[in-house]
UniProtKB/TrEMBL annotation:
Name of the featured protein: ABC transporter permease
InterPro entries, alphabetized: ABC-2_transporter_component, ABC2_TM
Main location: membrane
Superkingdom assignment: Bacteria
Length: 359
C-alpha cells in the first residue's frame, strides 16, 4: 500500500491541484474583474422625438463611462433582435413629443429596456441611466426656476432642495472585483481542498495513521493557499482591517469541515468517481447560496436550507466580519462555532473506513 510520499511522487495531477490550479484560477478570476467596474457596455437608442432635448439626453449617454452607444434604431421592433442576441445590453426609447411635453409641464416617460439575466450588468446600466435622468431633470427644473427667480442659487435650491450626502462604509468605489473576487476564490478554494483530499484517499491506506497523514498534509497545503489568498487581496488594496492570525483559524476551520465531508463520502462509497460527483453537486451552488450575491434575507426556504448546510456560508460571514469590518474576536468565534456540527463528519468518515476494513 503506497505511503504518502510515494503518492506525491507518482501522481502528477496532485501537483497540478496543489500548485498550478490555485495560481492559475486566481489569475483568471482576477483578470476577468480587473477593471473593477463594468464600462463601455453596448447600448442602443430609439429617438422618436428628434429634438434638442433628446439630443442632450443622447449626448449624456455617450459621455457616460458605463455606456457605449453602439446603434441608433428607428423602432423598438428593429432593436429587439439585437437586444435578444446580446449585441446590445440595453435600449433607451425616447418618445415622440418629449421636448414639447416637458415645456408644457406634462409628465414624460423615457423607457429603458435591459436584460435582467445579466444581473450585475443590468444593475450597472440601471444605475447609470437613473443618474443621467436625475441630472437631466434637475437641469430642466433649474432652467424653469431661473426664468422665474432670475437667481441661479435660488433656482438650483428650488430644483434640488435636498442634497443627499452618502458615505459608503464598505467598498466605497463600488468595485465589482472586490465584491466578487473575495467570494469566488474562497468558493474555488474549497473545491480544490476536496479535490486534493479525494485524490489522496483513492489509494489504499496502510493504517489510521496513514489516513490522518494524508488528511493533514492536504489541509496544510490549502491552509497555506488560503493565507496566500488573504495577502493577495491585501496587495490588491482590498480591506484587511481585522486579525490576520484569526483569519488563519477561519481557513483552517473551513478546510477541516470540507475535508470531513470528503472523508465521509469517500469512506462510504470507496469510489472516487461517485464521491467527486456528489462533492461537485454539493459545493457547486456555493457561489449562489453563500449569502453574498444572494442574501439569505431574500432566499426561500430551500435556498436557506442549502445555504445553512454549506460551510462556506459561515466562513464568508466570518471573513467579511474580520477583513472588512474588523469585528472583535468573540463575535468571530461565535460565527465559527456555527461550523462545529460539520466536524462530526470526521469521526463518521473514520467509522466508515473502519467498518469497511480499509484501515
Amino acid at each position: 500500500m503506497p505511503p504518502l510520499f510515494w503518492i506525491l511522487a507518482r501522481n502528477k495531477f496532485l501537483w497540478i491541484v496543489y500548485i498550478l490550479m490555485p495560481i492559475l484560477l486566481s489569475a483568471i478570476i482576477y483578470s476577468i474583474f480587473a477593471d473593477a467596474l463594468p464600462r463601455k457596455l453596448p447600448v442602443g437608442v430609439v429617438d422618436m422625438d428628434k429634438s434638442t432635448l433628446s439630443q442632450e439626453l443622447i449626448y449624456d449617454m455617450q459621455v457616460s463611462p458605463t455606456f457605449l452607444l453602439k446603434q441608433h434604431y428607428n423602432s423598438i421592433a428593429e432593436a429587439k433582435k439585437d437586444l435578444s442576441d446580446g449585441n446590445i445590453y440595453a435600449l433607451a426609447v425616447i418618445p415622440y413629443g418629449l421636448q414639447r411635453g416637458v415645456k408644457m409641464g406634462v409628465e414624460q416617460k423615457v423607457a429603458f429596456y435591459y436584460n435582467t439575466q445579466f444581473i450585475l450588468i443590468g444593475k450597472a446600466l440601471d444605475n447609470a441611466f437613473l443618474q443621467i435622468m436625475t441630472i437631466l431633470n434637475a437641469k430642466i427644473q433649474t432652467g424653469n426656476n431661473l426664468v422665474k427667480t432670475k437667481n441661479m442659487n435660488m433656482a438650483l435650491g428650488q430644483s434640488v432642495p435636498i442634497l443627499p450626502h452618502i458615505n459608503p462604509l464598505f467598498n466605497s468605489k463600488s468595485s465589482y472585483a472586490q465584491f466578487l473576487v473575495t467570494l469566488i476564490l474562497p468558493c474555488m478554494w474549497q473545491i480544490l481542498v476536496a479535490l486534493g483530499l479525494l485524490n489522496l484517499l483513492k489509494y489504499p491506506l496502510r493504517d489510521s495513521l496513514d489516513l490522518w497523514a494524508r488528511f493533514s498534509f492536504n489541509l496544510f497545503v490549502f491552509t497555506f493557499w488560503g493565507m496566500a489568498m488573504v495577502f493577495f487581496f491585501s496587495i490588491l488594496g482590498y480591506p484587511l482591517v481585522g486579525n490576520v492570525t484569526f483569519l488563519f483559524l477561519g481557513f483552517l476551520m473551513l478546510g477541516i469541515c470540507v475535508s470531513g465531508i470528503v472523508l465521509t463520502l469517500q469512506g462510504a462509497y470507496q469510489n472516487a468517481t461517485k464521491s467527486i460527483g456528489l462533492i461537485a453537486a454539493y459545493t457547486a451552488p456555493s457561489l449562489a447560496f453563500a449569502g453574498v450575491t444572494y442574501p439569505q434575507s431574500a432566499m426561500d426556504n430551500f435556498a436557506i436550507f442549502w445555504s445553512n448546510i454549506l460551510p462556506i456560508s459561515y466562513f464568508m460571514k466570518f471573513y467579511f466580519q474580520q477583513a472588512n469590518y474588523g469585528g472583535n474576536i468573540l463575535d468571530g468565534l461565535k460565527i465559527l462555532s456555527q461550523m462545529l456540527p460539520f466536524l462530526l463528519f470526521i469521526p463518521l468518515g473514520f467509522l466508515f473506513y473502519k467498518l469497511k476494513g480499509k484501515i
